[in-house]
Hints:
Layout: H1 2-5, H2 10-28, H3 40-46, H4 48-99, H5 120-131, H6 137-156, H7 158-162, H8 166-183, H9 210-231
Amino acid sequence: xxxxxxxRERPLFVSTLLAFIMLCIVxxxxxxxxxxxxxxxxxxLISDATKNIFSGLLIGLxxxxxxxVFIDFIPRSRKEREIFTVLNSxxxxxxxxxxxxxxxxxxxxLPHVDKSVLEKLxxxxxxxxxxxxxxxxxxxxQAMNTSFTRLDDFRHVLPLVVALSPKHTMQWLVLTDKxxxxxxxxxxxxxxxxxxxxxxxxxxxxxxILVYKTALNFRMLEIIExxxxxxxxxxxx
Length: 237
């Protein structure tokens, strides 16, 4: 049940469950405790009026929760899933271009990008690669090209993110900023002579584009870090 997976909904569900248990207790009408017998509370506790009042209140609470689940929670959850599908596809488009070194990755329609790049295992393994500056230059170029092409898309979907929550909005703004920083390198890639093209993935001073490649690697590292925070927020505080 999705409402049990959502931490925001658990207190309400627990309260309703307790109300249901109390309703069962009231309707069963267990014998009152001995120390209430003969006291002024005995008549109140065994009164039909008391039972009817508590039963009505508890039934009203339970009914309200049922209406909430079907009228508000389920439609809202469906809408949020659809929003996340769009947003996550945008993130995947940049990561997909890197993973597959896709020359035309920036032209790939969002429904067709490789969603496996959103898996935590791939993200964490890529994180290690980028932290060691062991990424490849050509895949970095493809990711940069896609980030340049998709930057406006990241910005234009902000109203969708705002509909989720302020926390999601802040995280998306940070992620969009990282995409922008990578995109700003577009068109600045230096030319490499044929006799030095074999050095482009070397982390040595002989590499004629070492500074540029290192900059792209760092920007992708930031994107991976923010993607993990976006996709797996409960595991990142």
